[in-house]
UniProtKB/TrEMBL annotation:
Keywords: DNA-binding, Transcription, Transcription regulation. This is CRP/FNR family transcriptional regulator. GO terms for molecular function: DNA binding; DNA-binding transcription factor activity. It holds the Pfam family cNMP_binding. The keyword Repressor does not apply. Transmembrane segments: none annotated. Residues 12-114 form the Cyclic nucleotide-binding domain. PROSITE patterns: CNMP_BINDING_3, HTH_CRP_1, HTH_CRP_2. One of its GO terms (cellular component) is cytosol. Residues 146-217 form the HTH crp-type domain. InterPro entries: cNMP-bd_dom, cNMP-bd_dom_sf, Env_Response_Regulators, HTH_CRP, RmlC-like_jellyroll, Tscrpt_reg_HTH_Crp-type_CS, WH-like_DNA-bd_sf, WH_DNA-bd_sf.
Length: 226
């Protein structure tokens, strides 16, 4: 599939005419990354923005001691690196492929030129940034105010809303338990203990990555002792 064809199916570019999209495709560079391969590193000078054409990547921040906190996941068709694309500041986080991924990089100056002539595109960028800001605020609230079990329960309920066909049906988590632990701010061992506790209380069924929420009310309450 050509760069133009890849970009044409990206929701961000819906509404662009063929000439504008072709000009963008001519300047874009597509790269393949293996699982766990770094795409952008914290403090890199990134004057570009990226789009996941296939696969999935994680946005994370690590402490000096190496503890990693995943901030959010970027799915197929979604962009990242907007926060520094139009500034001269270094990128504040790491971006790593979670699975084999195809990523397009578009120079910021070309995106800026396009946005000037396509107000609808700029509105979509603002909407994406607003959504990311809301995700960050929710994460800060969860880490500061919620206990570990409450964060895990909230993650499972959110995952069900994203990946289950309907409430109460089984769904498969798109990430490993190790990555899930980094999202909710705990260790893999603690995550496993909480999952087993939720299973014993018949709040969920779990086998590997396959999860089914059995009791939504009790899981939402998350008041079953730390």
């Amino acid at each position: 599939m050509s760069t133009y064809e890849n970009l044409r199916r990206i929701p961000l570019f819906t509404g662009l005419n063929d000439q504008a999209l072709q000009a963008l495709a001519d300047r874009a560079r597509m790269s393949e990354y293996g699982a766990e391969e770094r795409i952008v590193s914290q403090s890199d000078d990134v004057q570009a923005f990226f789009i996941v054409l296939s696969g999935r990547v994680k946005i994370s921040r690590s402490s000096p001691r190496g503890k990693e906190q995943i901030l959010y996941l970027v799915e197929e068709g979604q962009p990242f690196c907007f926060c520094t694309a139009f500034t001269d500041r270094p990128y504040p986080v790491d971006v790593t492929a979670l699975e084999p991924s195809l990523v397009a990089m578009i120079p910021a100056r070309d995106m800026e030129d396009l946005a000037r002539n396509a107000p609808g595109l700029m509105l979509k960028i603002v909407q994406i940034l607003s959504g990311r800001l809301l995700e960050a605020m929710n994460l800060v609230e969860a880490l500061a105010l919620q206990g570990t079990q409450e964060r895990i329960a909230g993650f499972l309920l959110h995952a069900e809303s994203c990946f289950a066909d309907e409430p109460g049906t089984a769904f498969s988590l798109p990430i490993s338990h190790r990555e899930m632990a980094k999202i909710v701010g705990t260790t893999s061992e603690t995550l496993s203990r909480v999952i087993q506790k939720l299973k014993r209380r018949n709040l969920i069924e779990a086998s590997g990555r396959v999860i089914r929420v059995v009791d939504h009310a009790e899981l939402s309450d998350a008041d079953y002792g730390e």
